[in-house]
Amino acid sequence: MSVNIPSDIRLSEVKQWLATQPDLKVSPETIRPASSDASFRRYFRVDGEDGNTYIVMDAPPPQEDVRPFIHVAEVFGESGASVPKILARDVERGYLLLSDLGNTTYLHQLNHDTAHKLYLDAIESLVLIQTQSKPGVLPEYDRALLHRELMLFPDWYVGKHLGVTMTEKQTESLNKVFDVLLANNLAQPQVYVHRDYHSRNLMVVSPGNPGILDFQDAVYGPITYDLVSLLRDAYIQWDEEMVLDWAIRYWERARRAGLPVSHDVDAFYRDFEFMGLQRHLKVLGIFARLYHRDGKDGYLKDLPLVMEYTRKAAGRYNALAPLIRLLDELEEKGPSVGYTF
Is pTM, for the whole model, over 0.90? Predict the structure, then answer.
């Protein structure tokens, strides 16, 4: 069935590309939107003559580059994790034809009846990927990158979203918290890191659950990062007791698999929380930037949950207490209407 889509140059171009691939038996006229994300990438679904559906990634240069996706798909795929197979590529123009992992995300399937099995599957796949980790294969998640991500919080969340200019004393206090977080993050064992291992990027598939998407920004970095992305998800929240249980189950599996997690579960969980706080601050900045720079307001509704994670994690450790005081001060100075915390 043909689906009408407003015409654009790249859509016309990708249809022509599909039609001229000698080994592809797909029907370009069936192309229709599959999903979009927070970047310039678009995804389309197209029917195959074999009765299956396939995914077309449109990653327009120079804003996007498909080569990291191709590389990480190979690295993660070799571990045995379920990632899309690349069936055709036009690297220069930014087109990929991929196998289709379906349209059922973890986010759509998760509830109190399904969560335990789905999260254990995700933990198993995460351990599988991490056990294949080697230095020099993926970019390093080094101090410079971790710090750049943290700076999204003062630049975009505080400055743009709250409209607050921090004092010198406040900036100094925040920088000290950043130093504490970075020292912890960089001291953690290093493994392959997906960087967005959460409910919108995990697909419910059988066999080999979960199917893993959106991994092109993968790096070599702190071992707790992806677990935090999974369990302290910006789009869905679980009771602390459940999160702790799943985190411990990961820790047990990681130790059995020979991964270099701490032998002390309390120390491991502290690493998990400190890593989480780095991610939460980054996400607050990213969601604010998506709204103020890119005009995407769909992420504003997720800010309160991320702020709740931020406050709870910071409130549990004396070294992070200055962040709580700063957030209290910023809340008083922030706008009186809209999304304030």
Answer: yes
